[in-house]
């Protein structure tokens, strides 16, 4: 357990020689002067990064619960990381130690918000658990179930005010965030506010198709479109695809891709209650969530208390980088000031 301590400035005190001199001049006891100058610091509540575990359908998930060491219950946020092998901190096996979700947790605590971030199935200390023998059974519903278990765990913490629960998610994690916000079944904690950072703007295979069209050869586009048709009609995929597309979908993961593609973000958005405060961000530099591509999702969220922030030159990992190069994702730069300003306005709404 690691704690970060914040203290107020210590009052400047007189040294012993000065105290004695003043006491002679004013004919007052030195103790009376010293008593008026306390050396005690006035400490703010300490923020603690606590290692926690919770259960989701037989899978033990590991996470970090960042909260005050004392005080009254306050606002709390669940953080959901990007898709793929991305852990609680935003670190990715391909791109390296990105750390953006850890930075987001620290930024929220600066604003008085506790948070829970966790290693989803297949990442970090959580690992595959009962799915180790059948990793192909890890599908979108598995991730949503984990997020739901995480939200319930967070809501039950003594430091959480259940009337001030929020969910912040990045990329494909926004799918699970919207599913939680729209889930009005008994026993599911109510999401008061929702942060959708660079969200998935449409069905999974449609998003990939748009990327292939933007940068692929005509042959690659035709091959990919044929593969999408096969996936959607038969649930199978060609064993080989050009231009590295086989790393996106292949016989080993086609089951998970089919389920992910069956999820319509616009339908999830429509199910979110009208009184939910929603922050949606996009960026002209993010090929995965350009502002023109997320327009249908923005339209689907118009019934909510929606705030849309269009970033300039911010990468998919929420840092200032107009190249949005994966090679720069692990740069350890601070989160973009544009994101910080957006949260300054949004937190507490």
Account of the 3D structure:
With 349 residues, the chain is an alpha/beta fold. The protein folds into three domains: 2-35, no CATH class; 47-201 and 263-346, Alpha/Beta hydrolase fold, catalytic domain (Rossmann fold); 205-260, no CATH class. Helix content is 32%, strand content 19%. It has helices spanning 16-26, 30-35, 100-110, 140-155, 173-181, 204-215, 218-234, 254-261, 265-270, 295-300, 337-346, and strands spanning 2-4, 47-56, 59-68, 74-80, 114-119, 160-170, 193-197, 277-283, 305-311. It has a nine-stranded mixed beta sheet with strand order 1-2-3-5-4-6-7-8-9, sandwiched between helices. The longest helix has 17 residues, at 218-234. It is globular and about 65 Å long. The chain starts with a strand and ends with a helix.
Keywords summarizing the entry:
349 residues, alpha/beta, Rossmann fold, nine-stranded mixed beta sheet, 9 strands, 32% helix, 19% strand, globular
Helix content: 25-40%
CATH A-level architecture of the largest domain: 3-Layer(aba) Sandwich
Biggest β-sheet: strands ordered side by side in the sheet: 1-2-3-5-4-6-7-8-9
The average pLDDT score comes to: 88
Shape: globular
Q: Which class of the largest domain in CATH terms?
A: Alpha Beta
Residue runs with pLDDT of under 50 for 5 or more positions: 1-41
Amino-to-carboxy terminus distance: 31 Å
Find the structural class using helix and strand composition. alpha/beta
Beta strand %:
15-25%
| The named CATH superfamily of the largest domain | Alpha/Beta hydrolase fold, catalytic domain
């Amino acid at each position: 357990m690691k704690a970060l301590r914040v203290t107020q400035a210590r009052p400047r005190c007189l040294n012993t020689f000065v105290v004695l001199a003043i006491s002679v001049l004013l004919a007052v006891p030195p103790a009376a002067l010293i008593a008026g100058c306390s050396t005690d610091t006035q400490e703010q509540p300490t923020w603690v990064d606590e290692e926690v575990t919770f259960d989701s359908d037989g899978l033990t998930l590991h996470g970090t619960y960042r909260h005050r060491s004392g005080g009254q219950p306050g606002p709390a946020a669940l953080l959901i990381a990007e898709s793929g092998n991305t852990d609680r901190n935003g670190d990715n096996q391909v791109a390296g130690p990105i750390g953006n979700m850890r930075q987001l947790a620290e930024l929220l605590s600066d604003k008085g918000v506790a948070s829970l971030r966790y290693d989803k199935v297949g990442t970090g200390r959580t690992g595959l658990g009962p799915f180790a023998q059948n990793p192909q059974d890890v599908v979108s519903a598995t991730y949503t179930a984990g997020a739901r278990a995480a939200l319930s765990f967070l809501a039950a913490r003594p430091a959480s005010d259940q009337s001030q629960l929020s969910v912040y998610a990045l990329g494909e994690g926004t799918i699970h965030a919207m599913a939680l916000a729209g889930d009005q079944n008994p026993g599911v904690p109510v999401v008061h506010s929702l942060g959708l950072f660079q969200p998935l703007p449409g069905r999974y295979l449609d998003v990939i198709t748009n990327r292939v069209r933007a940068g692929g050869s005509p042959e690659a586009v035709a091959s990919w479109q044929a593969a999408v048709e096969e996936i959607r009609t038969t649930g199978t995929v060609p064993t080989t695809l050009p231009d590295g597309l086989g790393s996106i979908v292949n016989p080993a993961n086609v089951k998970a891709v089919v389920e992910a593609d069956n999820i319509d973000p616009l339908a999830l958005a429509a199910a979110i209650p009208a009184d939910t405060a929603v922050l949606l961000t996009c960026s002209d530099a993010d090929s995965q969530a350009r502002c023109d591509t997320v327009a249908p999702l923005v339209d689907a969220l118009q019934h909510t208390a929606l705030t849309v922030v269009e970033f300039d030159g911010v990468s998919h990992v929420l840092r200032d980088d107009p190249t949005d190069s994966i090679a720069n994702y692990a740069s350890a730069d601070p989160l973009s000031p544009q994101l910080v300003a957006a949260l300054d306005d949004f937190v507490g709404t």
